[in-house]
């Protein structure tokens, strides 16, 4: 019996389900501030834990909508008057761990989602209905915050302005400082006022350090031969097997917010014929797909070229460089996770 294929799946997610699903993904379901292990060589990490903990406590104890602030424009004591906390840093330093820890520490209602999931929610519900649904929350946590096009800039600026004015606190992670959002991707200077207005609502916490996923660990396993892929999938029940190019074409037919549902219930993803990507649009879809695999801790097995070769040197020099490097980091970690699952002699 042949293995299941992702290209045969066409997941559909209703608007109500989108709202109900706004919680940390399985990989971050049990994380807390106490489970974050700061790198002793990077003082900013311990400082970030403390800052995030203080923010969560402030939201939990005083996160109700402040009539004083709305009516009289009052500020919180100690200069902590900004409704947002923004975790900035490289990939693999634990920003998502800290964001999920904030979410877990704040009594509900609280919502959590990636940036693309948030923009899709607005598209599914309509702007006004999304504001109505989210304005009743204490906290909105946004992972992988980025502005890749002018439409997103205008939409998110307006959305977060209305939510924070309504008393919602916002925590976000990104690889880009708030006032640099959109840089290298579109004519961000034309939207400078919107970007500056958005960044003014956040206090920035920097998280420095090397990628913890590869700290002291070996490189990813070498790709298998095409003929070995079927044996590996058979050794891991619940696996899928897809040829790389057809899968990339299938991803183009789905909104990225559906990629998580695409791989729900899958124990390992096998990809035949992996090679360097030639188009930026395809590469960005693969980044989003890799993020959802990582969220769900789904191991990846490939033939062809290694996952570290997915993005060309030109891509790695461009405006999406950090996204591509994050995807490589995560896919290498998932490739490493797959090795112990296969029976001896396979691969």
From TrEMBL:
<keyword id="KW-0132">Cell division</keyword>
<dbReference type="GO" id="GO:0016887">
    <property type="term" value="F:ATP hydrolysis activity"/>
</dbReference>
<dbReference type="InterPro" id="IPR005654">
    <property type="entry name" value="ATPase_AFG1-like"/>
</dbReference>
<dbReference type="Pfam" id="PF03969">
    <property type="entry name" value="AFG1_ATPase"/>
</dbReference>
<keyword id="KW-0547">Nucleotide-binding</keyword>
<keyword id="KW-0067">ATP-binding</keyword>
<keyword id="KW-0131">Cell cycle</keyword>
<protein>
    <submittedName>
        <fullName>Cell division protein ZapE</fullName>
    </submittedName>
</protein>
<dbReference type="GO" id="GO:0005737">
    <property type="term" value="C:cytoplasm"/>
</dbReference>
<dbReference type="GO" id="GO:0051301">
    <property type="term" value="P:cell division"/>
</dbReference>
<dbReference type="InterPro" id="IPR027417">
    <property type="entry name" value="P-loop_NTPase"/>
</dbReference>
<dbReference type="GO" id="GO:0005524">
    <property type="term" value="F:ATP binding"/>
</dbReference>
């Amino acid at each position: 019996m042949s293995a299941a294929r992702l290209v045969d799946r066409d997941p559909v997610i209703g608007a109500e389900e989108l709202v109900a699903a706004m919680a940390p993904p399985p990989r971050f379901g049990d994380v807390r501030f106490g489970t974050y292990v700061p790198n002793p060589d990077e003082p900013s990490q311990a400082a970030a834990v403390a800052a995030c903990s203080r923010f969560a406590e402030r939201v939990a104890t005083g996160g109700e909508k402040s009539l004083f602030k709305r009516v009289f424009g009052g500020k919180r004591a100690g200069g902590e008057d900004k409704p947002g906390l923004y975790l900035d840093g490289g990939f693999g330093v634990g920003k998502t761990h800290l964001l999920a820890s904030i979410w877990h520490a704040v009594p509900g209602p609280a919502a959590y989602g990636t940036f693309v999931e948030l923009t899709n929610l607005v598209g599914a519900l309509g702007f006004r209905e999304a504001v109505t649904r989210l304005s009743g929350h204490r906290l909105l946590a946004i992972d992988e915050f980025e502005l890749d096009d002018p439409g997103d800039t205008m939409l998110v600026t307006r959305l977060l302005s209305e939510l924070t004015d309504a008393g919602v606190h916002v925590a976000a992670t990104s690889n880009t400082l708030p006032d640099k959002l959109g840089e290298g991707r579109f004519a961000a200077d034309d939207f400078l006022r919107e970007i500056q207005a958005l960044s003014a609502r956040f206090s920035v916490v920097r998280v420095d350090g090397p990628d913890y996923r590869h700290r002291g660990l070996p490189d990813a396993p070498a790709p298998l031969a095409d003929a070995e892929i079927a044996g590996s999938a058979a050794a891991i029940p619940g696996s899928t097997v897809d040829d790389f190019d057809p899968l990339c074409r299938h991803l183009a037919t789905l909104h990225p917010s559906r990629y998580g549902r695409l791989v729900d219930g899958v124990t390992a993803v096998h990809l035949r014929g992996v090679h360097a990507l030639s188009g930026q649009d395809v590469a960005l879809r693969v980044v989003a797909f890799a993020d959802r695999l990582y969220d769900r801790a789904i191991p990846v097995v490939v033939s062809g070229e290694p996952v570290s070769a997915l993005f060309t040197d030109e891509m790695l020099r461009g405006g999406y460089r950090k996204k591509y490097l994050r995807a490589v980091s995560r896919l290498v970690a998932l490739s490493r996770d797959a090795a112990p699952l296969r029976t001896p002699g396979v691969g």
